[in-house]
Amino acid sequence: TQGRFALLTNYRDLSEPETGSRSRGFLVSDFLRGEQTPAAYMQEVAEQADTYSGFNLLAGDATGFCYFGNRGEPQPQELEPGRYVLSNHLLNSPWPKAERLRRRLGTYPNADLEVSLTPIFEILKDNGQAPDPELPKTGLSLERERLLSSPFIISPDYGTRSSSVIAIHRSGWGQFDEITYNPEGIATEWHSWPFQLKQALKA
Question: pTM here?
């Protein structure tokens, strides 16, 4: 309801050992509990970047939207309004699954979110795998790279277990929906939490 949000992914590179001394999970909760602007917070994170294993962090509020990955540029980026895709590499890296989602979400009209979030969940449930020549090389076996190349991963031991959509209208009304899936990729629960920001977003 304060309008603050943050998202985190790990940076996948098996040739690089996990050496960070701090938990990456606190990067999200510390921002959400704090009062710093996204830009100020990201600068603080950047100054401590070498104390974490690889990560990508997005953080924003009504004042701005920032990205920082400690395996990319040394300084945080302030992002302009637009559409971005983040996987387990750097922001907007053209991994096959990221590009699949970019194409499909890029043509989806924002106004339709007021009607239903279901089509977005259907887009997110894309389990098509990329052709072998397009697979990234992150130190995994070819079989594993194939499995992880789809936006929605179905596997008994490692796969997509939930999808979340947060949609906020300019008026400040928002909807946070989450679907939980079993190892076969079948939806088992759908939760929906409407909320109202304490102030409307700027035009």
Answer: 0.88
